[in-house]
Amino acid sequence: MSTSRHSEQELPRWRRAVLKVGSSLLAANGGGLSTRHALGLAEFIASSHRAGREVVLVSSGAVAAGRALVRAQPEAAHGLAARQALAAIGQTTVVALWQRFFDRPVAQVLLTHDDLRNRRRYLNARATLRELLSLGALPVVNENDTVAVDELKLGDNDNLAAIVAALVDADLLLIATDIDGLYSANPRSDPAAQAIDDVAAVTPQVLAMAGGAGSSVGTGGMLTKLEAATKAATAGIGTVLFNGTDAQAMRLLAADRLRGTRFRAGETRLHARKYWLRHAPLAGGRIRVDAGAARALQSGGASLLPGGIVGVSGEFARGDMVEIETMLNEQASSIARGISQYAAGEVRRIAGRKSAEIEGLLGYSYGETVVHRDDLVATAGANP
Ligand SMILES: Nc1ncnc2c1ncn2[C@@H]1O[C@H](COP(=O)(O)OP(=O)(O)O)[C@@H](O)[C@H]1O
Ligand SMILES: N[C@@H](CCC(=O)OP(=O)(O)O)C(=O)O
């Protein structure tokens, strides 16, 4: 293929990133997993760790690894159940492959769409991933292929990586693949394809550039990478696409330089988060606060503490989105919404009390705020 090259540019600043590594990099066509390209990627992760950065790895390769391990009757292993069995066989080698490069613990995290759609499971997955990072572990995420049938499936790891990036509040999504970046057409079939360095937004024209997978082991091709960049952008997270087979591109990355394609986020992360908070579905419950707490919440910057709470109606669980209201001219009026750190029954018990009393009243504490300011958005008079 004779194509133009991507030029070198600055890598967006980041402190926590999700790095997605495709099957095309880990398994040569038909072969088992190979360390050939994984080594350069692992060196990049290690140098990021040394710089005090955090990385969540989303690694494909289970099906390709399983296929190579089974070998016999490759043509029989194409149905859904067979793919699921191959993923189960191959997944242990995916994790083992990464563990061999690191002294720090490597943690296997398998997720399905259902885990991420259900608010409570989403929060649990988020808490576990944050805990893994604070323990200094390298989380290695893959789709839980053994249980993920059609309606539970995310379908591809590019999209999974974008969702994980939002889940862990990453600053950047890094997608390593077997091609230098985005081209105006699939360069494997169009030698005149032009390198695209910078994408301000994934428009229909950009989507039209995408072709299918380049290897027999890759799944989504460029389209799923563009979908992932769009998802990440909605969460206020930028994406970069680069060639994981190019040792020089990897070294550049460790020096905060990119040769590949940069997709911009458009929105700031804070703005994206506030948008989500404003539009996420509400649980049935409401927390009523006194005038002082209402003023503090509406002027912004304050968390909701138990002391300002005067009542609770309805039921909700820890992690649910609740409406916060106050009495105005003898009428209950909604002023904000946010994620409650305590279930309705717990809030009833700590309402009106000091934060320091929570542990004594409940026998445990999830922290001194009922709704943390990062999880709270004022609604009264706010534009959607
Ligand atoms: N417009 C395009 N620009 C670059 N690559 C493209 C484009 N359209 C299709 N592709 C193909 O996408 C492939 C990468 O996707 P895929 O094979 O699914 O890899 P992975 O396993 O890394 O997810 C490239 O090898 C290339 O053949
Ligand atoms: N969960 C599958 C990967 C599916 C997938 O998206 O693969 P790829 O397009 O190579 O990133 C596996 O581990 O084989």
TrEMBL record:
<dbReference type="GO" id="GO:0005524">
    <property type="term" value="F:ATP binding"/>
</dbReference>
<feature type="binding site">
    <location>
        <position position="157"/>
    </location>
    <ligand>
        <name>substrate</name>
    </ligand>
</feature>
<feature type="binding site">
    <location>
        <position position="145"/>
    </location>
    <ligand>
        <name>substrate</name>
    </ligand>
</feature>
<feature type="binding site">
    <location>
        <begin position="219"/>
        <end position="225"/>
    </location>
    <ligand>
        <name>ATP</name>
    </ligand>
</feature>
<dbReference type="InterPro" id="IPR015947">
    <property type="entry name" value="PUA-like_sf"/>
</dbReference>
<feature type="domain" description="PUA">
    <location>
        <begin position="285"/>
        <end position="371"/>
    </location>
</feature>
<dbReference type="GO" id="GO:0055129">
    <property type="term" value="P:L-proline biosynthetic process"/>
</dbReference>
<keyword id="KW-0418">Kinase</keyword>
<keyword id="KW-0963">Cytoplasm</keyword>
<comment type="similarity">
    <text>Belongs to the glutamate 5-kinase family.</text>
</comment>
<keyword id="KW-0067">ATP-binding</keyword>
<dbReference type="GO" id="GO:0003723">
    <property type="term" value="F:RNA binding"/>
</dbReference>
<dbReference type="InterPro" id="IPR001048">
    <property type="entry name" value="Asp/Glu/Uridylate_kinase"/>
</dbReference>
<comment type="pathway">
    <text>Amino-acid biosynthesis; L-proline biosynthesis; L-glutamate 5-semialdehyde from L-glutamate: step 1/2.</text>
</comment>
<dbReference type="GO" id="GO:0005829">
    <property type="term" value="C:cytosol"/>
</dbReference>
<keyword id="KW-0547">Nucleotide-binding</keyword>
<dbReference type="InterPro" id="IPR019797">
    <property type="entry name" value="Glutamate_5-kinase_CS"/>
</dbReference>
<keyword id="KW-0641">Proline biosynthesis</keyword>
<feature type="binding site">
    <location>
        <position position="20"/>
    </location>
    <ligand>
        <name>ATP</name>
    </ligand>
</feature>
<keyword id="KW-0028">Amino-acid biosynthesis</keyword>
<dbReference type="InterPro" id="IPR041739">
    <property type="entry name" value="G5K_ProB"/>
</dbReference>
<dbReference type="InterPro" id="IPR011529">
    <property type="entry name" value="Glu_5kinase"/>
</dbReference>
<dbReference type="InterPro" id="IPR005715">
    <property type="entry name" value="Glu_5kinase/COase_Synthase"/>
</dbReference>
<keyword id="KW-0808">Transferase</keyword>
<protein>
    <recommendedName>
        <fullName>Glutamate 5-kinase</fullName>
        <ecNumber>2.7.2.11</ecNumber>
    </recommendedName>
</protein>
<dbReference type="InterPro" id="IPR036393">
    <property type="entry name" value="AceGlu_kinase-like_sf"/>
</dbReference>
<dbReference type="InterPro" id="IPR036974">
    <property type="entry name" value="PUA_sf"/>
</dbReference>
<feature type="binding site">
    <location>
        <position position="60"/>
    </location>
    <ligand>
        <name>substrate</name>
    </ligand>
</feature>
<dbReference type="Pfam" id="PF01472">
    <property type="entry name" value="PUA"/>
</dbReference>
<dbReference type="GO" id="GO:0004349">
    <property type="term" value="F:glutamate 5-kinase activity"/>
</dbReference>
<dbReference type="Pfam" id="PF00696">
    <property type="entry name" value="AA_kinase"/>
</dbReference>
<dbReference type="InterPro" id="IPR001057">
    <property type="entry name" value="Glu/AcGlu_kinase"/>
</dbReference>
<feature type="binding site">
    <location>
        <begin position="177"/>
        <end position="178"/>
    </location>
    <ligand>
        <name>ATP</name>
    </ligand>
</feature>
<comment type="function">
    <text>Catalyzes the transfer of a phosphate group to glutamate to form L-glutamate 5-phosphate.</text>
</comment>
<dbReference type="InterPro" id="IPR002478">
    <property type="entry name" value="PUA"/>
</dbReference>
